[in-house]
Amino acid sequence: MRRFSIRVRSVGAVALASLLLLITFGCSRRSGEDLAFLGDSITDQARAEIIDRFHVPADRLKAAGGKTVQDMAIPTTELVAAKPGRVVINLGTNDVLGLLPVDSTAAQLEGMASRFPEARCVFLVTINERMISPQGGDPHGLAVALNDRIRSFANGHRNWRIIDWAGTVNQYDAAGDPNGPVTNDTVHPTAVGRTMLLDDYERAINSC
Questions:
Q1: Which is deepest, 17, 66, 86, 135, by most CB within 10 Å?
Q2: Global pTM?
Q3: Residue 185: which of 5, 58, 69, 41 has the closest Cα?
Q4: For residue range 117-176, what is the model confidence (pLDDT) as tens digits?
Q5: Do β-strands 121-125 and 160-163 pair in parallel, antiparallel, or remain unpaired?
Q6: How far is Cα 7 from Cα 111, in angstroms, rounded to an integer?
Q7: Helix (H) or strand (E) segment spanning residue 122
Q8: Residue 187, Cα to own-chain centre: how many angstroms?
């Protein structure tokens, strides 16, 4: 009887330790401590809302206006050193607005995502296909082509996932913008648009 009692207590201790580990892991995921964001002005303008909603440490959100994918190489290196478990990359908008070649932009995005091999999930955000570039040209065609490339290389990696902002915008516009415009200038989300974008983020993040 004494031996049985000791065994029961041992099993109970192991179960309790496992439960505490799961609770700690779950709290860490919900707290946002393992999250990181890379972006341009779209992310920067939503900085306060992202930090508030996802509880992301301020130094894990790297974003600034006007930045191309290549411009964010150094901030990427800083985030790689932090070893985040989940990474959201929303870049490529300024490359398209600047009419830069899709092949180079796609290669830079794929290389950036590849720098987080230990992350559980790397989320790649498709870009709005309804933008107008001050330089003219065909930003729509470039955006569609870039998004196709993003979806293609994301499908080749087990831990890479798509956040389809382009699809969200297209569906919302097709519905007649029921809650008002999604962007101020075809690029930067309005308050309505930011809520929609962060909702897309949250659904994806919670799935990882």
A1: 86
A2: 0.85
A3: 41
A4: 999 999 999 999 999 998 899 999 999 999 999 999 999 999 999 999 999 999 999 999
A5: parallel
A6: 52
A7: strand 121-125
A8: 17
Q: Mind listing the pLDDT tens digit for each residue in 57-99? A: 999 999 999 999 999 999 999 999 999 999 999 999 999 999 9
- Asked if residue 91 lies in contact with residue 114, where contact means CB atoms within 8 angstroms, the answer is no
Residue found by looking up tokens 């796609």 in the block? 106
3-state class (DSSP) for residue 63: strand
The answer to whether 86 and 208 have CB atoms below 8 angstroms apart is yes
Instruction: Pull the structure tokens for residue 1.
Output: 């009887």
Q: What is the mean pLDDT of residues 178-202?
A: 97
Mean pLDDT in the chain? 88
Tell me if residue 146 falls in helix, strand or coil.
helix
Q: Which amino acid is at 35?
A: L
Computed on alpha carbons and rounded to an integer, the radius of gyration of the chain in Å comes to 20
**How many degrees, rounded to 5, is the angle at CA 191 between CA 185 and CA 195?**
120
Q: Which two tokens stand for residue 116?
A: 């987080």
CB 116 within 8 A of CB 87: yes
